[in-house]
Design a protein that fits this description.
Layout (H helix, E strand, L loop, with lengths): L10 E6 L15 H16 L4 H8 L1 E12 L8 E11 L3 E10 L10 E14 L10 H7 L1
Antiparallel strand pairs: 1-3, 2-5, 3-4, 4-5
Amino acid sequence: MSTPQETHTPFQHPIRIYWEDTDAGGIVFYANYLKFFERARTEWLRELGFGQQLLREETRGMFVVSETTVKYLAPARLDDILTVTAELQDAGRASLTIAQRAYLRTAGHTQTSDRLLAEATIRLGWVDSTTLKPGRIPAPVLKAMK
């Protein structure tokens, strides 16, 4: 007997492409996708009730990126609007793996009709903000992300 699949929508954050985001060829410079992914993760945490500065002040800890994998599928250009997603893929006591995607938003926007431009897997570790030694991710943060 099968159980119904839980439908889950990843967090979504809009990003407009500005002149400063593009290279001499007029397309988004590849490293800027990492900035877009960072912004989406930050806004996701904020929406969950965990502004990063406040989290750092209250817990004396912070997330650091320990590994990234990005696959580029198509370019974004000046004035495009992207939808950048963030979704928990895996969680341990001291690290997380976040799946992220950047879509070109199209007219009549629905994520399924948007064009996938880049996808990434980002591994984050939790560290003491002073010593940078690994620590445990606060339980309320983990609970909110799941």
